[in-house]
Specification:
Layout (H helix, E strand, L loop, with lengths): L6 H10 L14 H8 L6 H33 L5 H68 L3 H7 L4 H87 L4 H4 L14 E2 L10 E4 L2 E2 L5 E2 L2 E4 L5 E3 L4 E7 L22 E8 L2 E8 L13 E2 L4 E4 L10 E8 L5 H11 L22 E3 L7
Parallel strand pairs: 1-8
Antiparallel strand pairs: 2-5, 3-4, 5-12, 6-11, 7-8, 7-10, 8-9, 9-12, 12-13
Helix pairs in contact: 1-4, 2-4, 3-4, 3-6, 4-6
Length: about 450
């Protein structure tokens, strides 16, 4: 599995806080490779020492991460009402959270590998012990046989004197045969015993490593909890202030040329199948923020449907795609990330549909970059896959932001031409007020998506 490389992130944050990462004898920057290597039994002392160094490196990094989390929390505690400052902190939090998530994932995989390695090592140790015992018995048996042939106590016999010269030569020859015949096997036996001792010590190291990594996992999960709690406070404060900034960003004159290839062309002559009613575009998940206001305060002009990344988003009605573009990473969202169109939308889709004889525009934001299934000008049927949920653009977590616009008696051709020339996702209703909510009789107007979905 490919993991985010977090060394550069940690180094950047650490240096910004005035801390330095120690210099190690080995280059541990390819953490995937080192986790894989050190989750296996080592065959020599150099490998053992290198893995002990990697363990020290991980502990140092974990301590630095906690220092960074503490600093992040201190910054939030002293936060002033400044959206730019909140965005900067949000970016730092994203880096910390990504680092921690990657670290936890790597540890979980490493623990599984180590536990399997220990099981294999136990079997190898038992087999090697049996082999050593067999060799040991064979050598002893041969030596006893030779001893019987040449006498029960060669040393004493030689000192006391043999019966004759031939007898002495026979006895000496027997000693030589023991030395020559068994010396190689004795040396191999000693090598096996040395390997066995290393394997036993590696079993102990791996067992200790498993215990330590499990303990670190608990600490890191607590760090995740700390980050989530502080980040939620950050998000709530940001949501109170974001309306004016978002309106400014999204009301800026669109560069039509830059998004032309993702926008429907004027002169569309196709028809749209009328359906009796909307269906939910997302199955499962929860409504995390309703239309007109966030739970903690702050203007919110749509419905936030929280769902895990990769959840299907389908067409709530038959229609035609007005805009579809996926320039942003699937899980790259953070507060102040203005990627996408409209600004901060990340990966977005806008579609036109006819429900019960009324023309509606429906937009979806913060989608996944992967699984994008439609393009501008494409006709879609109700229930057809459009995209997958993500966490892209100016987003604080995995969800899909949905807005619905009632276009009244506008014709399909008129609506297409208007969007093709303006690329206005808001259909003239703006981005900083609820005054254009449907109810006054004027159209286009903003509908509450909750009226149709949920």
């Amino acid at each position: 599995m490919k993991k985010t490389k977090i060394l550069s992130v940690i180094s950047t944050v650490a240096l910004s806080l005035g801390t330095m990462i120690p210099v190690y004898a080995e280059d541990y920057s390819d953490e995937d490779a080192w986790y894989a290597r050190c989750s296996q039994p080592q065959t020599d002392q150099a490998g053992v020492s290198a893995c002990q160094g990697f363990q020290d490196y991980q502990e140092q990094k974990r301590q630095q991460l906690q220092e960074n989390i503490n600093s992040f929390n201190n910054d939030i505690a002293s936060l002033k009402s400044d959206s730019a400052e909140i965005e900067a902190l949000a970016k730092q939090q994203k880096e910390l959270a990504d680092s921690l998530t990657s670290q936890i994932q790597a540890k979980e995989e490493s623990i599984q590998t180590i536990e399997k390695s220990i099981q294999d090592l136990v079997a190898q140790i038992e087999a090697k012990q049996a082999e050593i015992d067999e060799w040991d018995a064979q050598i002893k048996s041969r030596m006893q046989s030779e001893q019987t042939t040449i006498g029960t106590n060669i040393v004493i016999d030689l000192i006391m004197g043999s019966d004759n010269l031939n007898d002495m030569l026979r006895r000496i020859s027997g000693v030589e045969r023991i030395t020559e015949d068994d010396q190689d096997q004795i040396e191999k036996l000693n090598e096996l015993k040395a390997e066995l001792e290393l394997q036993k010590s590696e079993q102990e190291r791996l067992e200790n490593e498993t215990k330590e990594q499990k303990a670190q996992l608990e600490e890191e999960r607590e760090q995740v909890k700390q980050l989530e709690e502080s980040y939620n406070k950050l998000v709530e404060e940001y949501q109170k202030q974001i309306a004016d900034l978002q309106a400014k960003m999204r009301s800026a004159q669109a560069d039509i040329a830059s998004i032309r290839s993702f926008t429907i062309s004027s002169g569309y002559t196709g028809s749209i199948e009328q359906v009796d009613g909307f269906i939910n575009p997302i199955s499962g998940g929860t409504i995390s923020a309703g239309t007109w206001a966030y739970p903690g305060g702050g203007l919110h002009l749509g419905l936030d449907w929280a769902a895990s990344i990769g959840t299907a988003v389908v067409a709530p009605a038959s229609g035609v795609i007005l805009y579809a573009n996926n320039p942003a990473p699937t899980n790259g969202g953070y507060l102040g990330n203005w990627t996408g169109y409209p600004a901060g939308g990340g990966n977005t889709i806008e579609m036109l549909c006819n429900v019960g004889g009324t023309l509606y525009a429906v937009s979806f934001a913060h989608l996944s970059q992967n699984g994008f299934a439609v393009s501008a000008g494409q006709s879609v049927s109700q229930g057809q896959l459009l995209a997958l949920t993500g966490n892209s653009g100016n987003s604080s977590g995995p969800h899909c932001h949905i807005e619905v616009y009632n276009l009244g008696s506008m014709s399909v051709e008129e609506a297409v031409n208007r969007f093709a020339s303006t690329a206005d996702f808001a259909w003239g209703t703006g981005w900083n007020s609820t005054a254009t909510a449907c109810g006054s009789g004027n159209t286009p107007c903003r509908e509450r998506p909750e009226k149709f979905f949920g």
